[in-house]
Specification:
The chain has 157 residues and is an alpha+beta fold. The protein has one domain: Alpha-Beta Complex (Nucleoside Triphosphate Pyrophosphohydrolase). Helices cover 17% and strands 38% of the residues. The protein has two helices and ten strands; from the N terminus they run ββββββαβββαβ. The model has no long low-confidence stretch (mean pLDDT 90).
Length: 157
């Protein structure tokens, strides 16, 4: 959590807002990055995304982070999930996470300083839970469930 000081001098521990772009291609493969060693949980997979900038909305953040981390430009399809559970597994900062399904529209895969690998994964080739940095695999599996039998969205929690 971050500590913020307000105008009246009060201090509070607040939760971060993060946004993820669960990016899909025409074959319904998902785009994953493997985190660089210098990052928290380096060497593990995650969905492209990160912290919101001050003057952007969640959709803008998802598309910006996707492009910065992978070189792919996308279009937001829908909001899959708002993960606001303060007890999220593998999450020490209690981020509130907005997870959008984003369709890849153009670009060539490349890495920035936050990643050591980037690639497309089908449902059957998805890395195991222990290879993920955070709880993103759960959201990916929910996306594949939604494809098979649509349910009400967004998922909250």
């Amino acid at each position: 959590m971050i500590e913020c000081e307000f105008e009246n001098g009060n201090k509070a521990n607040l939760r971060h807002v993060t946004v993820k772009a669960l990016t899909i291609n025409d074959r319904h493969e998902v785009l994953l990055t493997k985190r660089a060693p210098h990052l928290l949980r380096g060497g593990k997979y995650d969905i492209p995304g990160g912290f919101m900038d001050r003057d952007e909305d969640t959709r803008e953040c998802a598309l910006r982070e996707l492009f910065e981390e992978t070189g792919i430009k996308g279009e937001v399809e829908f909001l899959l999930r708002i993960n606001d559970n303060p007890e999220r597994p593998k999450e020490d900062r209690q981020n509130v996470d907005f997870i959008y399904v984003v369709k890849a529209v153009e670009g060539e895969l490349r890495l920035d300083h936050e990643g050591i690998e980037v690639g497309w994964f089908s449902e059957k080739d998805l890395p195991s839970e222990d290879k993920f940095a955070f709880d993103h695999r759960d959201s990916i599996l929910k996306y594949f469930q939604y494809l098979k039998a649509p349910f009400e969205l967004p998922i909250i929690g």
